[in-house]
Design goal:
By secondary structure, the chain is an alpha+beta fold. It has 7 helices and 8 strands. Helix 4 crosses helix 5 and helix 5 packs antiparallel against helix 6.
Length: 265
Amino acid sequence: MVHAVEGRDNQERWRVRGEVRTLRQVRLRTLVGTLGVVAIADLVDLIANLIFAPWQIVRSAIQTTLIAGTLGGYVIYTHARANLRLYEMKTYLALLSTTDPLTGLLNRRAFFDRARAVAESRQPHMLVLVDIDRFKTVNDRFGHPAGDAVIQGVSRLMKAHFHADAPLARIGGEEFSAMLLTGTLDEVRASADAFCAAVANEPFQEGGMNFQVTVSVGLAPFAPDRTADEVYALADVQLYRAKQEGGNRVAWEGRGGKAARDHND
């Protein structure tokens, strides 16, 4: 009994603080120690990040800006260019659908669209129809290139003598152009007279030969009770009348009946 007590006393005397005695203690110490090491490592890492984080943020922002800016700019530019090409194609197709390719004036369909819009607006406008006199003779004698040059020349003179905002159109054949024009009858007649005189005095050349052409003009006013087709028919009647009377003149529907001004006189 005495020896047992002495043995325990010796064990207590030689015991080291923190001594591991059992397998359970080994496992516990391993777990706690590992957790402690991990906690210390995380704390050191956190402190390091707090110290160096601003530089890392700036570097990351620069890298992100360069990468995102390059890729995003390329994608956006490619998409914008595709949209621009689509817009240009739509604009070109719209231009083809409304423009006469030889003169750059409105074509027949676009002209009537404008005329109907004017008729519906019920605002005072005049319709002017122009036809080149004996145009077939020009084509037969000098060829179609000369005829095209005459058409282009007449369209240029129309632009010069009528209001800049007036829609001009080539509606086909020798009845080659038409327009809508704001203004009184006297103002439109004066512009039409000057235009006829300018065409008659315009020199044309083909194959070393000089030649001249004339035009006939018919006028008709828009009115609240008239459709665009009715106004066009009235102007066409006046145009036919001017041609029947020899051409190179302006014919219109006047208050006291029909009249015409002859530029041959």
